[in-house]
Specification:
- There is one protein chain.
- The chain is α/β, with parallel strands linked by helices.
- It has 9 helices and 4 strands.
- It has one domain.
- A 4-stranded mixed sheet has the order 1-3-2-4, with helices on both faces.
- The radius of gyration is 23 Å and the shape is globular.
């Protein structure tokens, strides 16, 4: 390119810089509303199907990793625990000291359900089979510990890797949806040093993922997230 062409190209770039319309300011709540409205454009007949799957999947026998295995007449405690976890509202934090002093553990677990972690072994039972890799899974809404274990087992089977499950405990499906809205629409300037700038699950997940990224032996960090 000769000097004349260079000068023309530079002048054009400067002109474009000053004539380009400014980027619109971020409005996460508006973006969230637009996403919700876009979802409502689905055929109403598919609303139920989008959550519960095809009717052919509702009846047993279910596939090995199907979440419908949670609803099992032969495992009534597991079924009851899932129904209570997804329908009884709770706080996404650890129980305060006064609650631990006054109430038994089963009451505290019912009304205070913070994010927790567990390591899902690979399909051969190993938890350190790929030391240079760290796989994370963050579950979606209406997922209690039993469903998260089922999801983690499926991912470990699918990818042949041990998986760290960041179990974003359900606080009931209405609270879960509200938490999603808060995280996407209002807590839009996250700071890993200040947990108040993020929802509790997001802050806990961020800390764990950053630690994995900064590990000396890290060659690959994979994050699989579902619906939140």
């Amino acid at each position: 390119m000769n000097p004349v062409q260079t000068g023309v190209a530079g002048k054009t770039a400067v002109t474009d810089l000053f004539m380009t319309a400014p980027w619109p300011p971020a409005n996460r709540f508006r973006d969230l509303a637009e996403v919700a409205l876009e979802a409502l454009r689905l055929d109403p007949a598919n609303y139920f199907r989008s959550v519960f799957g095809a009717p052919s999947s509702w009846l047993p026998p279910h596939r090995r990793f199907s979440e419908y295995n949670i609803i099992n007449p032969w495992q009534l405690l597991t079924t009851a625990r899932f129904l209570m976890d997804t329908n009884i509202p709770s706080y996404a934090v650890s129980p305060p000291g006064w609650a631990r002093s006054l109430f038994p553990d089963f009451i505290n677990r019912r009304f205070w359900r913070p994010t927790s972690f567990f390591r899902q072994p690979d399909e051969y039972g190993g938890v350190s089979s790929f030391p240079g890799e760290h796989w994370f899974f963050i579950n979606g809404i209406a997922t209690n510990e039993d469903v998260a274990k089922l999801n983690g087992a499926y991912l470990a089977h699918l990818f042949h890797r041990p998986v760290t499950v960041i179990q974003n405990a359900t606080n009931s499906w209405p609270v879960d949806l509200f938490e999603c809205a808060i995280g996407k629409g209002f807590k839009d300037d996250p700071d890993s040093a200040d947990y108040k700038t993020m929802t509790e699950p997001a802050w806990r997940a961020t800390a764990a993922i950053l630690e994995a990224l900064n590990a000396e032996q890290a060659q690959r960090v994979v994050v699989i997230a579902h619906s939140q």
